[in-house]
Specification:
Layout lengths: L1 H32 L13 E7 L6 H9 L8 E8 L5 H8 L5 E6 L4 H9 L6 E4 L4 E3 L3 H8 L5 E10 L5 H22 L12 E3 H6 L10 H11 L3 E12 L5 H21 L10 H43 L16 H25 L8 H25 L7
Length: 408
């Protein structure tokens, strides 16, 4: 029984990874053959960038500085800083940028990121509206790269390419690798018309569409995911502009990373439940038939394999303890030069690992223009499979109990 489950999960994982890589190759070939389109200054739409802030005194300067350095006509871009009940020096730092800059500051009681975005939406007439988290910075050409995708009238939102900003700790280096896979996933899911997340760092939306859909919602503390699923439910297209580079600050400690990922996973599961009508519905294409079901299966598979590893580790430890008690000696592992483990499961695991490495390389190519595996790739492969199940399991339990999560 367990072997059947194991092979099923491995088959699904391998199939999905190969499917994504084949789609990537096809898309890259199609882009080489397609002529590139550039927007003239006269065609550029007006844009409002919202910076929601709650106690962001340490990072706000860099974020606003990067926005003011955008290569975009100054008369067509407005920046709204929403002070969402900060208790530190955020307000004073933001006010220092106001003179000689097209920056507006709005203050409100703390109500969460979705309420900050809705307040800004009510105070702008820009054609496009987007968000930049106060812990992120954008490249000067990022906005032009995003706006170019809006030449397609069916596009309602565009997501950027997000990289880790100056990784320092081991956890940040692991996330640096993980974010390469995320870049790849957003690029391919966009190509498949199946993007279901519009991440906070510099996702841009047609303001008209956001208003028609009723603005941002709490979305179980993942408003970016809820709005993306709502857009998909109403037939809107979400594109990706990987050339719009954003660098974001990631959690430095295991506790901070754990809390962030529990919130993300919990939000996905609860939002997926809210939009369960998308699952296995042909009218929603790849998103309903393939992507969302596979995302749920991947969570279950990760917990299953982690549980099996723990079980086999416990059994092995018990056998070793029993042998020591009986013989008084600790057994030493023996090695045979010509012995090769030909287990089919192990062979499939090796293939899965090689495919993951290929995804990392493809993500680097998309995000940085060259195939470059980060030096921490091996660390990622060794550790991530043990880290992720911790927050996945916690999020599943909290989702089943309806316990909710906190932003901070």
């Amino acid at each position: 029984m367990f072997d059947i489950i194991t092979y099923t999960f491995l088959f699904v994982a391998l199939f999905f990874e190969v499917f994504l890589l084949v789609t990537f190759v096809e898309r890259k070939m199609a882009r080489r053959l397609a002529p590139s389109a550039e927007s003239s200054t006269q065609e550029l739409p007006s844009v409002c960038i919202v910076v929601p802030c709650f106690n962001e005194e340490k990072t706000l300067v860099n974020s606003l500085g990067s926005l003011l350095s955008l290569d975009y006509p100054k008369e067509k871009i407005a920046i709204i800083v929403v002070n969402d009940g900060s208790t530190d020096q955020t307000q004073g730092i933001a006010e220092a940028f106001v003179p000689q800059n097209n920056i507006t500051i709005l203050r409100k009681e703390n109500g969460g990121k979705h309420s900050a975005l809705n307040l800004a939406l009510a105070n702008t007439n820009a054609e496009l509206i987007g968000c930049l988290d106060a812990d992120s910075t954008v490249a000067p050409n990022a906005l032009r790269a995003v706006v170019r995708a809006f030449q397609n009238p069916d596009v309602a939102a565009v997501t950027p390419g997000i990289l880790v900003r100056k990784p320092e700790t081991l956890l940040q280096h692991i996330q640096n690798v993980e974010y390469r896979i995320s870049i790849f996933n957003r690029y391919i899911l966009s190509a498949l018309g199946s993007a279901f997340i519009t991440p906070g760092p510099f996702s841009i939306f047609r303001a008209r569409v956001v208003r028609e859909l009723g603005g941002w919602r709490h979305g179980h503390s993942t408003e970016d995911m809820e709005l993306a699923l709502r857009m998909q439910a109403f037939g809107h297209l979400i594109a990706n502009a990987p050339g719009a580079t954003v660098h974001t600050t990631t959690p430095r400690t295991l506790r901070a990373l754990f809390r962030q990922r529990v919130r993300w996973t919990y939000g996905f599961m609860r939002n997926a439940l809210d939009y369960r009508r998308l699952f296995f519905t042909r009218s929603y294409g790849n998103l309903g038939i393939l992507v969302l079901p596979t995302a749920i299966i991947s969570i279950i598979a990760a917990l299953y394999f982690f549980a099996r590893i723990l079980w086999h580790g416990a059994v092995s430890a018990l056998e070793t303890y029993t042998r020591v008690q009986l013989t008084g000696f600790l057994p030493f592992p023996s090695f045979e030069m010509y012995y090769v483990n030909t287990s089919a499961v192990l062979f499939l695991v090796y293939i899965a690992i090689l495919l993951i490495v290929a995804l990392i390389g493809a993500g680097s190519l998309i995000g940085e223009g060259r195939v470059r595996l980060p030096r921490s790739t091996i660390l990622f492969l060794l550790c991530y499979g043990f880290l992720a199940p911790m927050w996945l399991g916690t999020a599943v339990v909290r989702a089943l109990l309806g316990a909710g999560v906190r932003w901070r």
